[in-house]
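Hi L., both proteins are below.
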Amino acid sequence: NYADKNFASDSNLGDTYYDGDYEYTEESNKIQNEDSQNVSGKIIYTAYLTAQTKTFDKTTTKIKNLIAENGGYIASSELSGGTNYDYDSYDSRRATFIIKVPAENFNKLIESAEGIANIINKSVNSDDVTMQYLDYEVRLNNLKNQEQRLNELLLKAENLDQMLRIESEITQVRTDIERITQSFEVLKNKI
């Protein structure tokens, strides 16, 4: 659908077709193909472990140290149950950690955790987000190229009406760049 928003072709800018979301040029197709070949698999790994221990405080300390040793951090934690002062409920203490760790240390951390406590439940999942990652890269590149071409067209605008239309498009493109950049950063932080 190229009907709604077309920009004139300019020999200095190359042929450009705009459909509101994407800009298609020979250059963007070339970049997309190069990116597809250069980006290795982008995988989000997730693990859920349930463990038992008779030494709750020592085990949670060891887990926290293990996370730090593997370049990770605790995104959130929850401790519940008895305390050292409530011996009747001491056995029902629980800890839940949501941690972030670099993908290259994921398996090492899981294996090490298995040596710290008695793992009674383990679930490991992976989600391949390579195509989503590539999509964000290509869309950002296309939008930045589009912004550059719009700025060049703005310099060539012959009247106020053209300037206002082009500035409106530039504002929309910048908004799209910010939105996609934010989503892309969220995805990168999960990988």
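That was the first. Here is the second:
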Amino acid sequence: LAGHAEFVRSMTLQYDMQRLAQTDPLTGLANRRALFDALTDAMRLPEAQSRPGVAMLDLDRFKPVNDRFGHAAGDQLLVEVANRLKRVCRNEAMVARLGGDEFAILIRHATAERLDALSTALLASLAEPIRLDGGVVMIGASIGSALRHTETSLPSRSRSPSSSWARALASRIRVSDAWTTTPAFSAARTA
């Protein structure tokens, strides 16, 4: 019985360590490592089983919030942004915080239209006022996306530097030649 209890403790500790290694401690979202692992797994499957799409989102006017209201308010803002991204994505996509004010969304079975619709919904959710302990702020975001493509897909296109982030993400796992970027969107509000 003692051996069984030790085994259960060991397995619980191993599970907790793995969860911590793949979770952003502030927002509770998946972290960069978890995103790359999930994207790598999706890319290993034939396209008929998985056509991943990635949207990269960078907050606009985050630094002024930190400067004006302090780092605690900045953290509060990041947590609220994470909650809004999760509400928009529901269980359809993996939401990850890459660090700072950068987020990524992975859709395992994506289309350009689905990525565009998701990008629009994400930006709309972030255009709403955010209530912090120090007051109400309005932020914006820039978003770009990339979609795994076949030989018959359109060549790469980009309307914003944020689309290059998606290509950079793809290139980190050595699949940049298998991606098409979708148009980028931007919405900015003043703080």
